[in-house]
Predict the structure.
Amino acid sequence: MIVSYSEALENPSPEIQNKLHQTGDVYTTGLAKHTTGLAASLDGINWEWKVKY
């Protein structure tokens, strides 16, 4: 599966947390990285990241 995702920021301040959630679209804030990755699963439940871009 190829997915877009955003990894959690380490220890964001309450101000940053509010900014991330105000718009409902974390990527438009410029505070989060828009990453794509490839994951594989044999059972559709347990996934293993193969590549993260």
About this structure: Residues 3 and 40 are 11 Å apart (CA to CA). Strands lie at 2-5, 35-40, 48-52.
